[in-house]
Design a protein that fits this description.
Structural class: alpha+beta
Mean pLDDT: 96
Shape: globular
Distance between the termini: 29 Å
Number of strands: 12
Number of helices: 15
Strand content: 5-15%
Length: about 475
């Protein structure tokens, strides 16, 4: 396999990572390969066996600089001074045909110095979940890591459920720099490494930034756009720890994530989020909290910390307003309003209140607006009809509200019950449900598979999702 590596992170000081190669596996077999993404990355391969051997970790390609990255992070509000890639190896970086630099990382590739007694492996379920959901997010237009390949290892992975089939995901990202990457050096008092990291992040992601505070502004803006984009699609990340907050503004780490079926502001899917810290409606506040942790780290790079604290505080305090603006823009488009006004917030929130009271399906309710069957999504039809009259009065001067809604409201999302059914089939050796999902989710704004748009029956509901360990 030929991968045109152009590595930059490996040129940073040794304190930033541990150099090591993936641990080989017994019998790598290709399950899925993203041909279009491979073409974007200028990857040349000879066939399924070649892909499986490389992305199974058994054959490190020429030019790679394999390493595990160091970072720290707040996990559910509690600071862990050292995390790092416990089951991932960064093979290196590639500059794509679009001129964008991207990481190529193997996830589930064996133990590293940061594994903390773990085996460094992943089982098939989380690998296919991340493959499907990350590619669905990309098709929905959400900034995200991408899935390049899924490979079964031929090895068993032991978890609480017992023996499970092992697998490795090849993940592609504009970088794997996280808030936690800055935190580890700031917390250790390694100011020179922190300054090197700041310069590197600016050069790689925000070259227009003139220093640490400009970097903070840019990351805040990217996160405000990202989180409100999630919410407009009913997406719940599930584990918005600072080590899962990417500086690039991409969605990263699809563990206990989920798209809502019936709407509720306090919806939680993560099996480990017992307090609802990362509930649907809590996500904007957590984004601000995460940026405050980034600000606290960046301040350590300044000699005049008082002035830096004052500027960083101003930037972080401006973020809630930025989130509100982004939220209104996203949700106004969902009801066909091209130029939202402040009072449109009340109109949108009234609709969402009706959805919550009636247990209406988030995706299908928005998709049905403007059709003759929109009222069928609600049990209190009289209340909906009253809302619809106000809404139609509001959009009467819009040039083409229906067209706007069709591009803001997907017909299909990767629903939890379909993902679980897909995983169950894949474990049994049947990849047809995976292929069906991937085909339909590639064009989420086109109604191509009505059955996949159906909410779960009572027996199909998946009440919780789990970390991809």
């Amino acid at each position: 396999m030929r991968i045109p590596f152009d590595n930059s992170y490996a040129a940073l000081p040794d304190d930033f990572y541990s150099r090591l190669e993936p641990t080989s596996v017994s019998a790598p077999k290709l399950l899925a390969f993203n041909e279009k993404l491979a073409a974007l990355l200028n990857i040349e391969q000879e066939g399924p066996a070649d892909i499986a051997t490389t992305f199974g970790g058994n054959d490190v390609p020429q030019g790679a600089a394999p390493l595990a990255q160091l970072y720290a992070g707040h996990q559910f509000g509690n600071y862990n001074p050292q995390l790092g890639d416990g089951r991932a190896i960064l093979l290196g970086e590639v500059i794509g045909t679009d001129g964008i630099r991207r990481d190529i990382q193997l996830k589930g590739s064996g133990p590293t110095p940061y594994s903390r007694m773990g085996d460094g492996r992943a089982w098939l379920g989380p690998v296919l979940r991340e493959y499907v959901v990350s590619e669905a997010m990309n098709a929905l237009g959400v900034p995200t890591t991408r899935a390049l390949a899924a490979v079964s290892t031929g090895d068993q992975i032991w978890r609480e459920q017992g023996a499970l089939p092992g697998a490795i995901l090849t993940r592609v990202a504009q970088s794997h720099l996280r808030v936690g990457t800055f935190q580890v050096f700031a917390h250790r008092g390694e100011v020179e490494n922190l300054r090197i990291l700041i310069d590197y992040a600016i050069q790689r992601h925000y070259p227009q930034a003139t220093g640490p505070m400009d970097l903070l502004r840019a990351v805040c803006a990217a996160q405000a756009d990202l989180v409100t984009h999630w919410m407009s699609l009913g997406f719940i990340h599930g584990v918005m720890n600072t080590d899962n907050c990417a500086i690039s503004g991409e969605t990263i780490d699809y563990g206990p994530c989920a798209f809502m079926d019936n709407f509720h502001q306090n919806r939680v899917f993560s099996s480990i989020d017992t307090q609802g810290r990362y509930a649907f409606g809590a996500q904007p506040g957590i984004a601000v909290w995460n940026m405050a942790q980034l600000a606290t780290s960046l301040v350590q790079a300044f000699d005049d910390k008082d002035a830096a604290v004052a500027e960083a505080t101003e930037i972080v305090h401006a973020m809630p307003h930025l989130l509100e603006e982004n939220w209104l823009k996203r949700f106004a488009a969902k009801i066909g309003i091209s130029t939202p006004r402040p009072d449109d917030t009340a109109l949108i929130e009234e609709l969402m209140g009706l959805m919550q009271n009636d247990g209406a399906d988030f995706t299908n309710s928005f998709r049905a607006l403007g059709t003759d069957t929109a009222q069928d999504q609600f049990t209190n039809r009289e209340a909906f009809e009253n809302w619809r009259a106000k809404w139609q009065d509001r959009i009467q001067d819009e040039p083409d509200p229906q067209a706007m809604m069709q591009t803001a409201n997907p017909a299909i999302i990767p629903r939890n019950h379909r993902i679980e059914q897909m995983i169950e089939a894949a474990v049994a050796g049947d990849m047809a449900p995976f292929e069906r999902l991937m085909t339909a989710l590639a064009t989420p704004y086109v109604e191509t598979d009505a059955d996949l748009s159906r909410p779960p029956s009572e027996q199909e509901i998946v009440p919780a999702t789990f970390c991809g360990t």
